[in-house]
Amino acid sequence: MHIYESRTVSIEYIEEQKYIYMRWKDYTLASEFREIIDFKADFILTNNINRVLTDITEHRVFAPSEQDFDRNVTVLLYSLMGNYKNAIIMNPKTAAAASAFRFKRMVNDVLKVEIIRLFETEEEALDWLLAD
Q: What confidence score (pLDDT) does residue 95 get?
């Protein structure tokens, strides 16, 4: 089910397996990014969803300030839900991958648990995300 669309992201809710699939592209302005992350958090909390699949293979880069914002939201989601996972599909040779590595390290280090993992394929990402 398609739940959100903007110039730089498409978000679907995959009801059968109960996860959100976010597909990013191009470059997202700070104001847009925060609106998207707030929407994601509201949808997750309202619908009791604890898994997110994020594809950034076509996105350029996330600014450090936006990564910090998303880290705070992600940490809050984990603290409220207790069981939250985010699999990120990325191309390791892009600037977006550097953003993903930084974001993963920030969140996992704060929480002292791995809730974010990076992958190069959707299949690998889904195997990890849907395990449990």
A: 86
